[in-house]
Design brief:
Length: 464
């Protein structure tokens, strides 16, 4: 395996494979238009988001190669960079030419609920049913979507991985400035005050230019994800269990204000790098791994995963800490994202596609793929946690992540598909950036977000 030195920024970007996979995507699109070497009648088209690590894509290719050999069906695999994949799939859908199978790490929050609602996806219940006992109830709930045409819920995606949201930091730097490993408080206010106060110590250390908190304040989906967890911390219940929006509740409005005030104060108090207002989804990773920030919040384990091949960094220098308790004193509950694969209804090869999805979802294949992803995502099948890769109690990152799975809830998109548009338009990222850049007041930002979400829901259910 190639050793990753993500603390060297040029390597980080190369590690994402953006340049290579962009070329790969463009060349494959061109060859598919020319349709020279592929017999399209016997070829399955799969679009897949570029992995963060070579092993992730290699694991997928191995699974595909074995399926091709067993089935006799060829696969045209198109690897697309994270930054391009939603734009490209939306374009393909609009032109009436989507692939047969599609996977993107952000699709569960942004487009899959809408596609299921609009009857554009194949019901894959017959793929899931034989494996139903392998999945947890929470995972199955995460792919059970509403369909306005069928007027019912069903399984419109196949779950392959899951993730919660994690807090990573440099323990070796904390130790250097005199903070013992157990010195981080467990209460909400004490926890965040600790990181704010540590910045003063950094200024007197060998890291005078380091920021103590690497929190995105931009239009990246990471900002959306982080703030959704802050809303959960403040017990803000935007949607009830029946999918009804609760923005007319005064306590909900007060909770949004409290969460916005806490989240944006880090930037306002200059504990966050100034360029956090312009970060993409890799910005927080880059600043932490370059030691520009001391800690960050991230919705996968991609940060420690990038350092897995260096035991010194992985086990001793970099650490993952439990989230603090909620401001109320309750234990934190975590929003779980289910990473999932879909089959488009426009596909003329649904039988082949379902056969592939059934093969992909076999436990041994999902285990190989999650291990290939270096553990940045977690298994969706509880029995897979019994594998040695996940059972190492001395692993300072996975052991913490697994504890978070004990107290979870699904994303709001599962309860009401209209909420996917809140993520797609990044309502939280927009108002957070306006607070820290344009000096929008907390009350103005709250009202702006509420108005926008109400409008999204109103338009969603407007008769066509």
């Amino acid at each position: 395996m190639r050793r990753r030195e993500f603390n060297q920024l040029p390597w980080f970007f190369l590690g994402l494979g953006l340049a290579n996979c962009t070329h790969n995507f463009q060349s494959l699109r061109q060859s598919s238009r020319q349709s020279s070497t592929f017999d399209t009648a016997k070829t399955l088209s799969i679009w897949w988001q570029q992995g963060f690590y070579p092993e992730e894509t290699d694991a997928l290719r191995t699974i595909i190669d074995k399926w091709e050999k067993n089935s006799g069906i060829k696969v045209q695999l198109v690897i697309i960079p994270q930054k391009d994949i939603l734009k490209e799939i939306e374009s393909a859908i609009a032109s009436g030419n989507p692939p047969d199978i599609f996977y993107a790490g952000v699709a569960d929050l942004t487009i899959i609920p809408r596609l299921a609602w609009n009857n554009q996806l194949v019901d894959v219940s017959d793929v899931i049913q034989p494996l139903k006992n392998w999945y947890s109830e929470g995972v199955l709930a995460g792919v059970n979507y509403q369909n306005k045409v069928a007027k019912k819920r069903s399984y419109y995606a196949v779950p392959i991985m899951q993730s919660a949201i994690h807090i990573h930091y440099w323990q070796d730097i904390l130790t250097e400035i005199g903070q013992a490993k157990g010195s981080i408080p467990r209460d909400w206010q004490g926890f965040w005050r600790f990181w704010e106060e540590v910045q003063g110590q950094l200024r007197q250390s060998s890291y005078p230019n380091m920021y103590s908190i690497g929190m995105p304040m931009s239009l990246s989906l990471d900002t959306y994800n982080n703030f959704e967890q802050f809303l959960e911390a403040y017990n803000v219940k935007l949607i009830d269990k029946n999918g009804k929006l609760r923005l007319d509740d005064s306590q909900v409005k007060q909770g949004i204000e409290a969460a916005l005030r806490q989240y944006t104060r880090f930037y306002i108090n200059k504990n966050v790098p100034p360029d956090a207002v312009d970060w993409d989804n890799t910005g927080n990773n880059v600043t932490l791994l370059s030691r520009t920030s001391l800690m960050t919040v991230n919705h996968t384990l991609s940060v420690p995963g990038s350092q897995r091949q260096d035991p010194e960094i992985y086990t001793k220098q970099l650490s993952t800490v439990k989230w603090p308790n909620k401001p109320s004193g309750e234990l934190m509950r975590f929003i779980i994202e289910i990473k999932q694969v879909i089959l488009f209804k426009a596909s003329t090869k649904q039988e082949y596609a379902k056969n592939f999805l059934s093969y992909l979802a076999q436990p041994q294949n999902l285990q190989a793929y999650t291990e290939g992803s270096q553990g940045r995502y977690l298994p969706v099948m509880p029995k897979l946690f019994e594998k040695p890769f996940w059972k190492n109690p001395s692993d300072p990152h996975i052991s913490v992540a697994l504890q978070q799975l004990q107290n979870t809830r699904p994303a709001y998109q599962v309860l009401n598909p209209a909420y996917s548009e809140v993520a797609a338009q990044n309502v939280w990222g927009e108002v957070i950036r306006k607070i820290v850049v344009d000096n929008l007041s907390i009350k103005q930002a709250t009202n702006r977000a509420i108005d926008k979400i109400n409008k999204i829901f109103s338009n969603w259910y407007k008769p066509s």
